[in-house]
Amino acid sequence: MARRETWAAYGFLAPWIIGFLVFLAGPMAASLVLSFTDYDALTGTAFVGAENYRTLIADPRVRTSLGNTLFYTALHVPLTMVVSLGLALLLHRAGRRSAGFFRTVFYLPTVTPKVAVGVLFLLLFNGQSGLVNQVLGPVGPDWTTDPAWIKPGLVLIGAWSLGSTVIIYLAALQDVPRDLHEAAQMDGAGAWARFRAVTVPAISGALFFTLIINTISSLQTFDEVYTAFYGSANQQTYGSDAALFYVVYLFQQAFQFLHIGYASALAWLLFLIIMAVTLVQVRLSRRFVHYGGG
Amino acid sequence: MARRWPIWTGLALAAVVFTYPFAWLVSASLKPRPDVFDNAFIPREWAPENYVTIWSAAPVLTWLTNSVVVALAAAGTVTVSSAIVAFGFAYFRFPGRNALFALVVGTMMLPGAVTMIPTYLIWNELGLATTQVPLWAQNLFGSAFYIFLIRQFFLGVPRELFEAARVDGAGYWRLFWRIAVPLCRPALIVTFVFELRASWSDLLRPLIYLRDPALFTMPRGMKAILDQFGQAGEARWEVVLAGAVLTTVPMIVAFLLCQRYFIEGVATQGRKG
Q1: Cβ of B110 and A113 within 8 Å?
Q2: Count of CB atoms situated within 10 Å of the CB of A273
Q3: Minimal CA separation from A125 to chain B, in Å
């Protein structure tokens, strides 16, 4: 009886197990092997040892794209988290009814395809005539052409789609037991003290989750950057190297220049970086993430 | 309640920042070329012919249809397969269950860019690398996040219901199909609309796989429009804007129709914590 149940269980799991082997474990292994080869579908694949990795270390465009991506992530993730938390606190205070409406409003940009976000970026942040600079006046920089301002501009347009983070925080805030706040208030804690001692620990699980998820996706930024700065028709670059993001470079190497082996090495470097960043975040978070009790 | 006005002011200001780009997009797409950047909320002169222009300049209807077909295939397959796997994890007790489930959760952290190249080679071997199949077929095998999400719902079904059905002689498939699925319909709808959105918005995979413009999805077509009419091309932004509206509006409509499910899904996502 129990054996039959086990077989039935694996029957239900079969799709995932097959998918895991064929589209995850297999490709991971293949990607690792390919990264040590000079892959060529026509003339055959040659084993080149660590050459791809040596090239990668010396490749200035790897450094540029990695630097850009890390810079973007370092600005984008904290900005998204802080603004989202602010908005979620406002929504929480506004009461459920009105929160519903604004929640919808804040979430709307996240259903906007990134291709459209890229177009909006080009036009709204246009240095001469874009709306953003009409508001800012003469201090507004050339967001889409000045290498120093391309990434800050992308960070701002990226923050437009922070809706899911807001909703996650709001859900977490609504789960915070009310008596914790009341107890702190009785002890004479002010608003800021309660925020720090009650709210933040109580929602630390959600903060941690969004930190990880936003970092991983931010390190893989592609769609809006490629839309705004790269041409798929003739492989040209419109912008400067300031918009060369890591996955954009990986995509170019793999699918435009057909350097499959080299691109696989790039993919593995990305994997290691993401794993390392995630591990550091998990380690650091052990000190401040509290589970249970809300 | 005297101190509520700062909350309202803050929310209202934020709401303007979050909605204005939409208004701008739609309004600018209806302006004649010289007026695109004038930023007037209501066009001084209307130019609905921008939509006629894009209609004749690009196979927009084909691209929209392709997007609908691909998104429905992607969402349909991932919902069914993830539900089946989720039931396997929620109902059965079997050796290795916790380890396997940890593996499922672990794969959520795996960056998609890492498996991108070998996956392309697989589809290439199968002779499907330039078709729409790679855009949805992987969903036949379930997807970690949705398996996690649906499993949470299945775990909430009272076990007595399953046991009663077992006593009546129901097989496992019947438990899944007749009890678990109907009782957890919201989770399945969340999965469906989430994947619908993800698939509709995807640019990277269509860039990798689609060569023939007749197969393009709308975002991929939008990129082609931008290449032709954008900054490297004829700088006819009014055409680009009309394309951006056509890419965006179907998703906005879908969202407004099913927003409860979108938002429920996101809120649940944060709780796994």
Answers
A1: no
A2: 16
A3: 11
CATH superfamily of B48-272: MetI-like (1.10.3720.10)
- Residue B147: closest C-alpha in chain A: A16
Residues from chain B that touch A223, judged by Cβ atoms under 8 A, are 201, 203-204, 219
Q: What is the ipTM of this complex?
A: 0.92
Which residue from A23, A107, A206 is facing B138, i.e. has the nearest CB? A23
**A120 vs B226: CB contact, 8 Å cut-off?**
no
Token output for A187: 């002890």
Subunit contact B122:A106, Cβ cutoff 8 A? no
Task: Choose the weakest-confidence range: A233-237, B16-20, B95-99, B153-157.
Answer: A233-237
Q: Which residues of A fall within a CB distance of 8 Å from B22? A: 108, 112
CA distance B197 to B252: 10
Q: Could you say which of A13, A93, A232 has the minimum Cβ distance to residue B7?
A: A93
Asked if B140 contacts B81 with a C-beta cutoff of 8 angstroms, the reply is yes
d(CA B266, CA A168): 6
A5 part of contact set with chain B, CB < 8 Å:
yes
**Residue A46, SS3?**
strand
List phi, psi (to 5°) of B265.
-60, -45
pLDDT interval class at A294 (50, 70, 90): very low
The alpha carbon of residue B259 and the mean position of all alpha carbons in its chain are separated, in whole angstroms, by 13
Query: What sign results for the dihedral spanned by CA atoms B262, B267, B272, B273?
Result: positive
- Chain B within 8 Å of A257 (Cβ-Cβ)? no
State the average pLDDT over residues A270-283.
Answer: 94
Looking at residue A4, its pLDDT comes to 83
Query: What number is the average pLDDT over the span B196-223?
Result: 96
Whole-angstrom distance, CA of residue B223 vs CA of residue A230: 10
- Facing residues of A230 across strands? A237
d(CA B172, CA A105) in angstroms, rounded, equals 43
Interval B213-256: pLDDT, tens? 999 999 999 999 998 888 777 788 999 999 999 999 999 999 99
Tokens standing for residue B39:
């930023």
Average pLDDT (B48-74) is 96
Mean pLDDT of the residues in chain A: 90
